[in-house]
Amino acid sequence: MDPARAEESRRQVDRLESEIESLRSGHKGMYERRYAEFFAHAKTISELFKSSRAVFHGERERLWAEFQALCNEVRQESDRAREARISNSRVKRSVIESDIREAYYWAKGANHVSDLQEAERRLQLVNERLKDGWGGFTGTTEFFESIAGNDGKLTREDRDFLWEKWREAKDEIRNRRAWLCELHFDHMRGVAGECLNLAHSDPRAAKERIKRANQEMKQHPLDRDQYAHIRENLDEAWNLASQTATSRHQEWRERMEDHVERWLDLHRKNESVIASLEEQVERCEEMESGARSSEFADRVRVWIEEKLDKIRDIRRTNEELEERIESAKGKLGR
């Protein structure tokens, strides 16, 4: 036997054995073997066999059988891992699909913006669950699934399926929001019309209704153009109510000032009448004291009482006028 060849054979055998052992013990992750790396390495070893021409036939057969057995074993292991991954992915897919379905039906039956917000919240949770691993799930789920060797990865097929369902739910949220916006827009156009009508007839009631309308707009969805349209109408109603109120206030002031002037004039006339009656009472009292008969004195006394009654009545009237005048001046800020 050629010593040189024997030495080269030994060297090549050692290298093949080292590579096979490295292939056997390497390329392992936390949960499973890294199969792509394993088979890439196996391809390199296969090429190494072709270039190791100095290895004797018996040794070559032994090493090749060992190498093939390892590759077959890992290939079967890879197939089982792939089947397990598909099975685990389907379990996760089923859970997430159920989440998406719930979000979809929250959107489909939404009658208020809070329902749409709940649908959005559920889809956001789905976003977390679609990532690799167990983000978005409970710590208990992550613990037990990890122990079972499930890394929480979805197959591409399952991921694509779920994203399609996610987009359907997102479209339903968008469509339902548009429907709610249109429904609320119709309602708010009616409210804005009501406010405009009230602005002409009852400015105070109009402003109270506009305030309530502003709260309604915060609680219900409108798109940007719809919001701007209703906002413009409500602002127009508010300005019109302010103008109407100003005009009516001016009319009221003019009426109140007219009343005050009329009451003051009446008060002055009444004071003049009282003065005249008081003069008449004085003359009657003189006539009473100079009466030549008791009958005439009694008649004059009746005249005096009648005039005093009139004076008292007129003074009561003037007191009422004074109260009205003072009240009106207070309201006018005078």
| Tally of strands | 0
Helix-and-strand structural type:
mainly alpha
Question: In one word, what is the shape?
Answer: rod-shaped
Could you estimate the helical fraction of the residues in percent? over 70%
Query: Unreliable segments (pLDDT under 50, ≥5 consecutive)?
Result: none
- What is the overall number of helices? 9
What's the story with the biggest beta sheet? none
Approximately how much beta-strand content do the residues carry? under 5%
Helices and strands in order, then pairings?
Elements: H1 3-25, H2 35-51, H3 57-108, H4 113-130, H5 139-147, H6 156-201, H7 203-219, H8 224-289, H9 294-332
Fill in the keyword field for this structure.
334 residues; 9 helices; rod-shaped; mainly alpha; single chain
Describe this structure in words.
By secondary structure, this protein is mainly alpha-helical. Among the domains are: about 5-85, no CATH class; about 255-330. Helix content is about 85%, strand content about 0%. It contains nine helices and no strands. The chain has helices spanning about 5-25, 35-50, 55-110, 115-130, 140-145, 155-200, 205-220, 225-290, 295-330. Helix 1 (about 5-25) runs parallel beside helix 3 and helix 4 runs antiparallel to helix 6. The termini are far apart. The model has no long low-confidence stretch (mean pLDDT about 85).
